[in-house]
Amino acid sequence: MLGHHYTRTFLETAVASMNAGCNLELSYGMRNNVFMHIPQALATGNITLQMLRDRVRPLFYTRMRLGEFDPPAMNPYSALDMSAVQSPEHRNLSLEAAVKSFVLLKNVRGTLPLRAQDLSGKRLAVVGPFADTPRVLFGDYAPVPEPRYIYTPRRGLETLPANVSFAAGCREPRAPPLHPSVVPRVGCKGLSLGCPHAGTDVETEAKDRRDLSLPGHQLELLQDAVQ
Question: Which of 37, 90, 101, 199 supports an S-S bond with 136, CB 3.0-4.6 Å?
Fold first, then answer.
């Protein structure tokens, strides 16, 4: 709220946040954060003790439901070790969630989903910087799994019984094309898949895009793939 000039001081921000119902501040790395001024707001009468209790109660109720105050022996999660992280069961569940959450915006002539039996012996061109760059798959504020568990579009498509050829087209979202004839030729019995992206190099928190256009020369790359 300070950055948007809604308030002028941390104290004003703390009071406005409390009055609005906010009870949790994300202030990693800030020693003197906004909610450190709550005692001052209480002492000056800008907020009441009852309001403070009302804001704190849901936080501790949630922590109690999570078992944070229980003896370790009562918490079933205490028995878990690092072998549970990225275990086959969890990876399979993640795969199931990904498959069930796909949103198909346009499917001309029933092209998708790709079926392995329809691709046998055909050529498949995978084009674009998104196709084989693991770090752009997760976006901002996301943990990165073990590299051996990451399936880029290229790696996933190479499991199909097709002759897969790949061209990134450019190294980074805004970079110029690597070569004007970078798109593989697939012929009349093939299929081209474009994989453009923006990624955290272009957009993250506090780094907004001015428009929704593909950065760099990626539109030209897609047009080459269509041609």
Answer: 199
